[in-house]
Amino acid sequence: MTKPSEASGRIEALRISLGMTQTEFAEALGVSQSRISEWGAGSVTPSGEAWIKLAALAAKCDRPEALFFWARLGIQPEALLSVADMLLKDRVCDGKPLEDEGKIVLVPPFAEGPWKIQQSYPALKVDAKKVPNKASTYYLIAQPPSAWDPGKRGFAPGETIVFDAQGAFAQDFNRFRGNEVIVNFEKAKGAKPDWPEGLFVGRAEVHPEGAVRHMVLGPLDLAPYNWRREETVTLESFRPEHYMDASLRDHRPHPDHLQSLHDEWNRAYRVAESDAISQLRFPQGCQLLGRVRARFSAEPSDVWRRKW
Predict the structure, then answer these.
(1) How many CA atoms lie within 13 A of 281 on its CB side?
(2) Which one of 6, 54, 234, 249 has the fewest CB atoms closer than 10 angstroms to its CB?
(3) Which candidate, 224, 218, 186, places its Cα nearest to that of 202?
(4) pTM (2 decimals)?
């Protein structure tokens, strides 16, 4: 049996290689920080579930410790390689004939910014009906942190998202208004306390509240007029009247004035609102990646995507 000190060393080596603090490492594994300390001291041996989590985390980051952790569960490298080879052939190698028939599209991984590590991942087979723009469609695998919330508008770590990046470079909010979009939130210095972090999905829309218009990401299962503020993420807010000509903005008709004056003011207000919306851009700290085309849950059999 492996000495506790060897297991402790492997666990600590994984944490250090990932550049994580004990707190971050504990959060990634879903255990307490004190448990990490106990593993490091060798006073407690990880449970079967903990070995699985350690192996999955190591495999996802291409760390050699993965095989050691799997071995603690009695799973030998030969068995893993055999299963991986079978999955790889089933999901990747057989894809080209199906693509030639127009049944599927082989979607490449998104490998920019934080996801550069995914550039070596194989193409993903996706139903051709879900990929109208092959040249601009990619997939990525969500990594922690994830903007996961009770409304399930975020992504669980390991979940696969297929999205169309066409037009996303300009970060034009109006162009994607009404669509299900995927964005990546980053907490910059001075960000609001409730500003999310990580990947997030929602319907891009402008939500009215009195004289204010909110640029929001809202839930997918409700019509915008049924949204409540607490169910949305507000990116920015504005008042249409600020975009009106000053001569009209500062001289709103009195209720006793002629109806024609009210009509003129209301027309100018609607034009100003339209102009304001056309100029909206996703704000700093919220990077638009594109329109969501498909999502696949994180399952044990999906490990092949992360390791090969």
Answers:
(1) 9
(2) 6
(3) 218
(4) 0.58
Terminal CA-CA length for the chain: 30
d(CA 293, CA 131): 7
Q: Which of 164, 144, 163, 162 is nearest to 154 (CA)?
A: 144
Distance between CA atoms of 287 and 275, rounded to whole angstroms?
Answer: 23
Q: Report the alpha-carbon distance of residue 168 to residue 276 in Å, rounded.
A: 19
Q: Walk me through the domains of the chain, giving residue ranges and CATH numbers.
A: 4-75 (1.10.260.40), 102-308 (no CATH)
